[in-house]
Design a protein that fits this description.
Elements lengths: L6 H8 L29 H23 L11 H16 L6 H22 L10 E8 L6 E8 L8 E7 L8 H10 L10 E5 L10 H16 L2 E11 L1 H12 L6 E5 L22 H6 L18 E5 L5 H13 L5 E5 L8 H17 L7 E6 L6 E2 L2 E6 L6 E9 L2 E7 L1 E8 L12 E5 L2 E5 L8 E8 L2 E5 L26 E5 L7 H22 L5 E3 L5 H6 L1 E4 L7 H6 L6 E2 L3 E4 L2 E4 L3 E9 L2 E8 L23 E5 L11 E6 L15
Parallel strand pairs: 3-4, 3-5, 5-6, 7-8, 13-15, 19-20, 19-21, 21-26
Antiparallel strand pairs: 1-2, 2-4, 9-12, 10-11, 11-14, 12-13, 14-17, 15-16, 17-18, 22-23, 23-24, 25-26, 25-27, 27-28
Amino acid sequence: MKRHISLLLICSIVAFSIAHADGPEDNLVQNVRPIPPPGVEVPAIDKDALNKGLAELRLLIDEVIQTPSKNPKFANLIPDVEIYHKSVDWALRYNMIYKPEEIKMAYDALTDGKARAESLKKGAAPWTNKKGLVVRAYRSKIDGSIQPYGLVIPESYSGGATRLDIWCHGRGETLSELGFVGQRTKQVGQIQPANSIVLHLYGRYCCANKFAGEVDAFEALDHVRKYYNINNNQVVMRGFSMGGAAAWQFATHFPDQWCAASPGAGFAETPEFLNVFQTEDVSKVPWYQKKLWGWYNATDYALNLFNCPTIAYSGELDKQKQAADVMERELKKVGLNMLHIIGPQTAHKIHPDSLIEIEQRLAAITAQGRDRAPKEVHFTTMTLRYNQSKWITVDGMEEHWEKSRVDASITSENALKLQTHKVTALTVKFASGTCPLNLFKKVAINIDGAEITTESPKSDRSYTASLSKVNGKWQLAADGIASDSLAKRHGMSGPIDDAFMDAFLFVTPTGAALNPQVEKWVASELPRAVTEWQKQFRGDAPRKKDAEVKDEDIAKNNLVLWGDPSSNAVLKKIVDKLPIQWTAENIVVGDKKYAAGEHVPVLIYPNPLNPKKYVVINSSFTYREYDYLNNARQVPKLPDWAIVNLSQAPDAVNPGKIVDAGFFNEQWALKKSETKE
């Protein structure tokens, strides 16, 4: 295929200025610049050639899908081909080509995609054995989209268990799939630890690896493990700038998953960081949003680094040194002394001498490997979304978004001591081969002063004991929380945004609404939700009409129901089983009533048709266009439920005027009162 890059395009791109985040212009609510920003016009000759190449690649992919492979396992490799089609298709379709190099990248991507497709037709997949830079992809469980990641495979790799470093990239408003694939084809990146595989996450574009971007890390890691021999006790979490923020979040939320973490710059929380580049009056933030900062504020989870060796880095002159400074402050509060390597006279980059020291220290830590059964575990959380560290799992909390804590230790060959704060249920679990307790003796657990005796460990060196607090007293319990009970639990704890970290389905209405204002609002918000999911999380939101929803859809997905009890047939089936009542006249929240013609409820709740999955009413992810401008703003904006007054039109901040909002209690019931500021 010939490559055409016109002089006109080059000239236009030279003049093109890519806007940057974190400046005064990012506080203009009424004049929000678009993210992703618009690209430049692609010359017709290139556009035609690329579209022709896309059609050819699509035919090849379809042939691979329809033709039985010589090796059935190769069917799972189709995403490795489809990512090349998506990267070019989406760049053209959504105007995300920004510079001449990216047109060349598009031609190269089509060439590489066709080569892979032809290999699969022959029953071969040579890229799975390639050393150096390798582009891979998987199909996401969340929305079925193809998501890319990059690998750097060392020449020393020969199939033995190998250390893996995960790298989270910095903010890139113009980093399309095409740009990412191009980078991962040509650039090794900022780190190259000896004899280690490096996994470069795309992270769902530019969300600081939050929400679907967080899930992306684990889906990509699981995919890598299928094809490469990863030493699971030598996985390191790393990143810089926005990627440093991600590394802080992963280290504090999942301390038992990593051998070590090394965050550089970035941000570690929302309220203080928003004053690093900007001046924001956080006193005006609604009370429920302040609570929800507890989802991604790494500062609230600082204690968890006790069980995750961490090396922080900052440039001496970098404003984003603030992230490590606040983490150091919070760690001191819990008695931990943070290692903070500072690049001398360095702004927002990694000083080469500092990188040498970081690599030496990480090499020493990874040589020891991850300790799967340490003598002590100290763990804190604000939500059951993050509920585990080492051999402690929190199964129940007194109240979400209030800090709970467990301090656990092995005190003798057959005794454990646990101290808890705001925890109502937990599990002690040592996996096979890890339990250090005496196999001949029953295990004595002292929890908050209560003595409980359990059976001895199993012969495979595993041990499990579940405990729950009943009427203020701890006792042995069945594993975790009963699956048929209506209670908040891991993966089913709210708020609204939690539904979009697993498979979801937009269910669209086909009937007439009870009120024209609601119908008009849904007709605006539904297509916006579809568009914004594509823009920010790089997938097509799965959709079905209400009349087409089947039992298998209900079994597999969180259902996002758009409309009202008249227009949406699925919502009509369950509306009388929700804690908020909705009739043609009123929306009733406890003892409060709101006129149904002027208001609409948004909420999340266990689906009455399948309580193991969520139902969401009239909402996608809750942060909006204004929040795209700064990654620290990309946090939940609505709690478990809210009432929207339709007299105020949706804007870049809210879906309308929020006149009431709150959290359901731990049994998913309305609270009698909320603490409001």
